[in-house]
Amino acid sequence: MVLSFFRAGDTGLDHVVTRSVAMVSDARHSFDLACTALLSGAQPKSIADDVRETDLRINANEQQLRGELAVHISVHGPNDIGEVIGLILLLKKIERVGDHAKNILDLAESGVSFANEPDIDELLEERRTVSGFFSEASTILAEHEGIPEGFRDRLDQMVDQIQARIDGYMTSDEPGHQVVPRAVYHRYLKRIVANLNSAVLAATEPVRVIDPTD
Amino acid sequence: MARPPGTADRQMPTGARAALVVALIYLFLVGVSSLEAGIKIMGADTQERLFSAVSNPIAGLCVGILGTVLVQSSSASTSVIVGLVASGALGVDQAVPMVMGANIGTTVTNTLVSLGHVRQSAEFKRAFAAATVHDFFNVLAVSILLPIELIFKPISGIAKWISELLVGSGGTEWKSPVKKWVKEPVGWLKDLWDQFGASGNVKGALMVATGLVIVLIALALVTKNMKALVAARIERSLNAILGKAGGLVALVVGMIVTIAVQSSSITTSILIPLSAAGVLTLRNAYPVTLGANVGTTITALLAALAASSPDSLTVALAHTTFNVIGILSLYALPFFREVPVIAATAMAEIAVRRRVLAVCYVVGLFIVAPLVGVAILR
Asked: Which of B33, B59, B162, B212 could join B182 in a cystine, given CB atoms 3.0 to 4.6 angstroms apart?
């Protein structure tokens, strides 16, 4: 620790970005595991510890990195304030994604399983798409080259699609034990996609850019 | 993640900044040497009149506090003291209490920084406690070590012993290699004031004033540029100790960072917003400030390199010795270690209830008390 002064390494903000990419990977891991319990019939008990430990790790990282951002501002002054605000938002969004993955696990632990339901293929496809968004978000954060065209549109479309499903469940004549778990699951799914959308936006455009020369 | 354009563009290349720092340190040494030369030109009578006020050690302590509060830098004030000792105007016995005063005076900066959090009660409480723990430790160290020094002279004794080991005990002059390098520009300054027709005490005063200005400007620029050079390293070091490092590690980090930026005020002031935000606990911040106490003594040691008298090196070493002994005797012992923490916590509790008392504390400790001390004891 004492020698950290003399060692070369990432500067403060680069280090936070690198760690936030790792947090997105952790959140994806939690999400995939929790969905396995809900959609593939895996025993929730067998994965619960892993999901909860990952969630705790995400939360601890968020706290630590927020501290590091405070150190950055204290040492460097307000030059990087926009980027720091963006990173604080980003960390919060990733932490929320982790929370919703845990909520999906809670749903599975309460006895819900869609593994043998008739709409399972549709649900699995939806999960694959959302899981793919995690991967794309990680790449966007790591590569520092802005948001690829169409990415946010696809996320918005996914949110609309999930909301349409939730609306359908709300007005469905199916029995409650069929529609309520689906509505709850889709609510979590929607929040995950929306938070991923906000995370990449926070990272690339933390505050509304006002150009005085415009 | 897109990095904002412009921040990197504004930065000077590292090599150029490092060269600038070396040039500024040279300028700083020229300033110290000019100060010494100016005092020597003034003559014994004038020196006697000017410095008779600090013949009383408590008055010397108060002058050390006031001088440091005025320039907001113990590095600058102790370098000036070293220059005065080198000129023969001040003796080691007079200078040691002044150096101790500088240690107290330097804590004003982070205490002032903590007042910036006054609108938020919880933040202010944490910030004020983190700032005043430095004050209380340094006041406690002086309260215990100054009387012992006046009676038994352990600090100046150890410093003299080290000084003799380093430069020998032969006579009142030592052949500092740095002194040779700065001789020429000091000569130019003398010639400059000669050309304006200055002589005697006037010329001496002008040389002292020029030296002071050079020392203050050079030190401020060294600090600014060194901070820019090592900011990423400071950040990494602080992150390493954030909420998990023990006292010794934090102390060493505080010392290294302060040596790098040549300013304890920079180190201790960085801690205040972190403590206010609750990122750093009082017990994490406390040893960092003590490390800063030791680290800041490097500047006076540097200044002593430009001086011709072994006594100036003794005083610079006394500053280091005082801070090391202070840590060994007060921080290493669990009972004493807690005293500044308890006092700072209690003070912060009071300050957050009656904020005007926080201002009274700052004005009282750093301005009124030393002014009264000088007025009564001179």
From this structure: B33
